[in-house]
Fold each of these.
Amino acid sequence: MTKERVLEKLKFDVELRGLSKNTQDKYYTKVKIFQDYYNKPATELGEKEIREFLHYLTTEKNLLLEV
């Protein structure tokens, strides 16, 4: 699956779930940033990459993560 197809599927799924437009946009943006960081579709990434990306956000970008 391509990065674009992942985003299309995500858009469809969050619309189907009835999430607010604001929430839909945030989901889309976050997945796009994650995919672009690795230059791979999210379907090819796993827990290891998620943890590395979260570490990057907290250490390099100084973003606090809400748990």
Amino acid sequence: MTTRTHTKGMTLVELLVTVALFTLMMLVITNGIAAMYKYNAYTFAQAYQVENARNGMQELIRDIREMTFADNGTFPLAEMEPHLIGFYSDIDRDDSVEYVRYELVASTTLTKRVFNATGTPPTYNLTTPDESITLSQHVQNFTMGSSTFRYYDQSGGEVTTLAGLTDVRYIVAEIIVNIDPVRDPGQFMLRSSATLRNIKENI
């Protein structure tokens, strides 16, 4: 007695359904992976800009703390605006005082410009910097209506006009960073301050 076994293959309809399901699953997985990388790329970019801003803030505060009289005797603080500060400081410890200007340019980029003294007696040409550095991008202080720099006198009163420039003894700096203001994870604020410790009270 002979037993015959018949093996039935997949029909065309079953094959099409299988291929369609596999394709759909692959699309879902691919889109999920792409969305994850896109979100993480934004997060990493935001973290990178925040780190740049943190380093820039540390450099700014260090330079402000070393603010001193210029080589020609000019008062240490020379420019004081909500988004710009200019002062004299020996930032490279070479016994020659530089003029340093920190400014929020193009509304979102914090820059540092350095001008060296030249000649005898020393003079400062503020038209062309000897060094220009971008410290932080995507700064949203203008957008948020927040000052980058605030100035205070010895008693803690805020100084808002050039008439009180020589009274400034304390400076607060604030940087708000966000590479895309309409998206999460949202803005990141850095705030620090420095005392003008090289200025004598009997000037």
Amino acid sequence: MWGFARSAMVLGIVLLLTGAARAQSGVGVEVDEVIDNRVAADIFTGSLELRVKLKGTGLDKATAARVLVKEARDDRGTVLTRPDADPPDFMGREYNNGMVPMSLRPPARAATSVKVKGTVELFVPGRDPSSTVKVDKALAKLDTPLTSKALKAAKIEITPLSAAAYTAKLKSRTLDEAEIAKLRAEGVARGVSEKEIDLMIGLAKAMESSDAPPDANTIILSGEESDFDRIYLIEVLGADGQPINLPQRSTSTRGTDTLMTLVASSPPPPNAALQLTVLTDKSRMSFPFEVTIELP
């Protein structure tokens, strides 16, 4: 999304830890890696990046997981949470050996430890049959919202776009002077430096210039950001009912409007179905945790 998340330098010190924090309900975290970067230069402000292993029962049934940080302070009292940051996406358990990342503000230079309180969230689709939604012949009617009782019940509206509608959508999202002024005002209100604002606006303009009309291999889906946030995965099913290869996926958001681009290896069949894996309340499990991390 076109946010103003602060950039973090890659420089840091990696520390392997063996301490564990066990949650009250069977799932907890074990800190595996700490990248402690308390160096600030130019527009960069440093960061504290953590990678944690999840420990406990039932993890084999979880498709994805994430860690939500509720409170984080170093032993000098510095608040390390990022109040303006968006919640992290769920990460598939098959990636990074099941590690889950956390990103915090850099601790005070004299700090020696950090205490983190938060919640581990698991996505377990098997707990709720309605988390898997299949829409047959989803590409037969472009520029019309997908029709599905399950999507209607979930209050999710997604529309596959034609090439013409996509081009019109891109034109409506072009950064004009009024939009740039709005982004600058938002950045200033959130304490973002002028250099960072210029950098992000330049990046947005560069991405606009790279947009091209979709070809026969490309599927464009449009909807509200809040609706896409509740979708973990979208797959395109071929005539055999199996997912077709999608080597490229991308998502962009302007305001609350989101466009998702799915690029297949070959043109999808006219009768292709879309299968959406939805993050329903019943398919999510939460476990509180607390952990103290010694810094190098």
Amino acid sequence: MAGLRVLFTAPVFLSFLAYIINPDWLAWSALPLANEVRLGALVVALACIPAIGWVFTSIGGNISETVLTKANHQLVMHGPYHWIRHPLYTFGLLTFCAVSLVAANWFMLFATLIGALAIITLVIPREEARLIDKFGLAYMDYRKHTGALIPRMLRRGDAARA
């Protein structure tokens, strides 16, 4: 699994690093975008900074750098976790996408989207399996009311009451 993480994340981080060091290195993948789009993306990226801080404040000592649960791990369901099960991935991916648009670079955006695909198909299912092992029915119930990366707007049963 670690090898797959490197395979999917290396292009993202290396492309961003290359752009930071010398944007001309990625000039071959320039994306013609209107300044208004780039400015809007900058606003989104800047808004993600306090949102990521909110995630870290909410999760506290339950943060882990890999797909694992700690012995004293608690199920966090407050803060952004009230609506989204994986808000760090949500805000992280949103930040990388926004910065790619600010940089007006399709390769950076493409690498981010490939990384997002890996998170959605490989990382989240493994994390959730571990969380189900740890928290059982409590986590399964939590999943019914929250979205993985975006909030659930309509919960089961809400349509019948509407």
